[in-house]
Design goal:
The chain has one domain. It has 5 helices and 5 strands. The chain has helices spanning 10-24, 42-50, 67-74, 92-101, 107-116; strands at residues 27-28, 34-35, 39-40, 77-79, 89-91. It starts with 9 loop residues before the first helix and ends with a helix. 35% of the residues are buried.
């Protein structure tokens, strides 16, 4: 895994994808990529921001042309910025899921954090 201080250009792109996907599904999902027609988690929103998904996407998982996306998500280790004395250090993907599901950060908060990474 990459050093957590190594710059990652993809993190700013992920932030843009999250915002784009969140605009399509205004409600936030917890524990799933998608819930019904109107909700997605941060990772689901990022995927949807990259690819136009069908309205009913429950059960779908990212499958194609995503090598750079997964390299960014799994190739960078980050500390949890969630507060509450949280000391987790995980891959970027796992931290995003952790922020979404455990700290209940909004997708916008996660996007802002991604943009702030150096």
């Amino acid at each position: 895994m990459a050093d957590e201080n190594k710059p990652q250009h993809c993190e700013k792109e992920l932030a843009q994808f999250i915002r784009s996907g969140a605009a399509r599904r205004p409600d936030q999902a917890f524990g799933d990529y998608y819930r019904g027609r109107n909700a997605s988690c941060a990772l689901g929103a990022a995927y949807e921001g990259m690819y136009r998904l069908p309205t009913q996407a429950a059960g779908l998982r990212p499958t194609k042309d995503l090598e750079w996306f997964f390299d960014c998500l799994e190739g960078s280790v980050r500390r949890c910025p969630g507060g509450d004395n949280c000391k987790k250090t995980l891959s970027l993907a796992a931290i995003m899921v952790h922020l979404n599901d455990d700290h209940k950060w909004s997708r916008e908060q996660i996007a802002q954090w991604l943009e702030s990474l150096k």
